[in-house]
Amino acid sequence: VQLVESGGGLVQSGGSLRLSCIGSGFTFRNYGMSWYRQRPGKERELVAHEGSTEDSTIYVDSVKGRATISRDNAKNTGYLQLDRLNAEDTAIYYCKTKIFQGGRWIDYWGQGTQVTVSS
After folding, report:
1. Backbone phi and psi for residue 74, each to the nearest 5 degrees, phi listed first
2. Pairing relation of β-strands 57-59 and 45-50?
3. What is the rounded distance in angstroms from the CA atom of residue 47 to the CA atom of residue 62?
4. Residue 90: exposed, middle, or buried by beta-carbon count in 10 A (0-12, 13-18, 19+)?
5. What does the pLDDT look like over 71-106, one tens digit per residue?
6. Which residues pair with 33 in a beta bridge?
7. Is 67 exposed, middle or buried (0-12, 13-18, 19+ CB in 10 A)?
8. DSSP character for 112?
């Protein structure tokens, strides 16, 4: 199982980014995907989650109305669109999936992509 994020970078306050997460080594459409972030000096926190059937989404309050999680199962890719970015969004963003293997659920993480918002 491998997850690879991309799409991070330096963006001005008020701008937008779309993060991507390509999954491999598992049946992508069968599993949900989560996006987490770790801001400087803070613990990693959940930003958004989407179930495998795309009918259940969760957003942390700080990004509600500014973030959209989505997926393209044909491309084995999950996305996180972030709009109206501000300095508080500066963080390393990680995608995560939870796979059922060997009789238990196992978390798999990507390597992270840095998002830096300049004022």
Report:
1. -65, -25
2. antiparallel
3. 8
4. middle
5. 999 999 999 999 999 999 999 999 999 999 999 999
6. 50
7. buried
8. -
